[in-house]
Amino acid sequence: MQVPITQDVHTIPRKLPESDRLNLIGLTRDALRAALIAVGTPEKQARMRTNQLWQWLYHWGVRDFALMTNLAKDFRATLAENFTIELPEVMTRQVSEDGTRKYLVRIAGGHEVEVVYIPEDGRGTLCVSSQVGCTLTCSFCHTGTQKLVRNLTPGEIVGQVMLARDDLGEWPEKGAPNDPTARLLSNIVLMGMGEPLYNFENVRDAMKIVMDGEGIALGRRRITLSTSGVVPEIARTAREIGCLLAVSFHATTDEVRDTLVPINKRWNIAVLLDALREYPKVSNSERITFEYVMLHGVNDSDDDAHRLVALLQGIPAKVNLIPFNEWPGAPYTRSSNNRIHAFAKILMEAGYASPIRTPRGEDIMAACGQLKSATERQRKSRAQIAAEAGL
Ligand code: SAH
Ligand code: SF4
């Protein structure tokens, strides 16, 4: 993240080349305040100016300093001389027959990530990426075949939400009520590319911006962070973000989970479950979502379903059963519909909600695990994945 210079330095406003101007998108309130002071805003005005600017950026979605009419003209000029308001650039936009929208966006350095908007009855969910590629190598995940290129900055993460709101035409009109329950983009899932808990600070700062009541104002229960199980960061997520948690569980024995989600070798099922047991208490959130990808003959037996029920004991949980999205060269196939329903029935009879995720946007390859990008060029060889996953 670009951090502005120390708070008490007063620089004389001067025109900087665009590339040297600081992008305001993604700065926390404190960083924004410090940036304003650094360009000469008197300290005693800085809080008020920060609030005003914040509302223009995140409540109204304004991108041009000249339109920020409650700021003095010379202050607007100072802003324009020193700062920019930039989002990742939308390269392509595809709309599926079912209304799912997929954006391929370009970030600094020419990297590309995907953002997916999924409309549902009464709500709409945006699937946001946190990294280009992923350091982890889950053997069923397409992103896991791509090397980590870099972490996204807070601006690139919050920028995904803002560009989707642009496309949905969802910034409030002057005078119109700002009712989060009536929004097209009402929920966020951190389930795109990358492991959000390996980019903790940037994800946290971005989500703080998204949750801020004077801006985009999506409540913490409308955000779900999905992790493969980075145990040390789970309690921190509860304390510092407080959003809902989903965990890529996918197996009921360490032996199988070691191959599917290799981070299990570091923090195994028992250790992960201990951390999850504490999560709802600390974050005051409701249930934890257990994501479970259905892989034919690997993790989809009745015994697995019964073991899963036993493991979930004592944790407020729901299970999302995800039919495997096959990708070219994947070492697995999708469980049959009958198998998935039989598995779901065992969970339901034990009292767990276990919805089966309907594949969305299949015609535009918008499914999780199929999110791909220019980083494909750096794809690992299949042999390397198999070796790393211990297959
Ligand atoms: N790294 C995080 C979040 C991104 S993956 C995590 O692993 O949780 C988002 C979800 O998509 C995870 O539950 C992941 O296991 C699942 N997923 C990945 N590839 C998939 C595939 N090919 N089919 C179905 N689900 C997949
Ligand atoms: Fe990374 Fe998540 Fe894919 Fe695993 S499932 S490789 S953690 S993106």
Automatic annotation (TrEMBL):
The active site is at E114 (proton acceptor), C368 (s-methylcysteine intermediate). Its cofactor is [4Fe-4S] cluster. The keyword Iron-sulfur applies. The keyword Cell membrane does not apply. CDD domains: Radical_SAM. S-adenosyl-L-methionine binds at G194, E195, S226, S248, F249, H250, N325. Its main location: cytoplasm. It comes from the Bacteria. Binds 1 [4Fe-4S] cluster. The cluster is coordinated with 3 cysteines and an exchangeable S-adenosyl-L-methionine. Pfam families: Radical_SAM, RlmN_N. Keywords: 4Fe-4S, Cytoplasm, Disulfide bond, Iron, Iron-sulfur, Metal-binding, Methyltransferase, rRNA processing, S-adenosyl-L-methionine, Transferase, tRNA processing. NCBIfam families: rRNA_mod_RlmN (TIGR00048). This is Dual-specificity RNA methyltransferase RlmN. It comes from Jannaschia helgolandensis. The gene is rlmN.
